[in-house]
Cysteine synthase
Amino acid sequence: MEFPTLEDTVGNTPLVRLVRIDAGRGNILLAKLEGNNPAGSVKDRPALSMIQEAEKRGEIAPGDTLIEATSGNTGIALAMAAAIKGYRMVLIMPDSASQERKDAMTAFGAELVTVTGEAGMEGARDLAASMIAKGEGKPLDQFANPDNPLAHYLTTGPEVWQQTQGRVTHFISSMGTTGTIMGVSRYLKERDPKVQVIGLQPEDGASIAGIRRWPEAYLPSIFDEARIDRVLDIGQHEAEEHMRRLAREEGIFAGVSSGGALAGALRIAEEVENAVIVFIVCDRGDRYLSTGLYAAEQ
């Protein structure tokens, strides 16, 4: 008898129907619970994929130092994957990230290098590129690595299709590196070109962990606009309020980008009838407790 390893537990996350938050007009809202991955987010999938595929190509081997810029979830997932496989992991991130995220990365043995909150992810990416150019480690580069969306083409997309028995009509995902939406869109549209794929970005002035509006120079090269049917701008208050609704009305304890995904799903539901709307719940809410967002009185 063979027993599974931790790697084997990545993916195959639940897809659950919302019970108390009613989309109306015969619409069904389904949440894909990516916080059920072992390191707690959707990023477990591409983190493992990028390391596994690079190993297959002979680009990296256990004992190497890997360098990656991250705002949080990818870093946690990579720290876990590096611990499993025996790599030194150096993560570069804005110091404005929540303390829980930083603590989770170091718990897995990763080394943190921070840039200022003002420098943001753009500054983190620039520093990572500089360190790699100096030979201080090897890149994975989630923003340009095709093994990022490949993970979702091979796993997340097929899971959504199978779990809805091919009935999915709309797929909604926050956009950060865009790996999730790129890979899932490719798979679903190969099965049914009529499936609508909706991406979410923060409206001007909003700061929502896990959702980005990239300057043109930093737009992830894995992003292909043709794979998305529509983009919705999500407000910060809107995302935070719907995050709290998920917890208080559905028992789904998730992060701010997941609240944004619910908000986007409800907007789409106002326009359609008898639709099967799937949205990604990217991570768990426990890594946001220190921000005070769940303590806010609404």
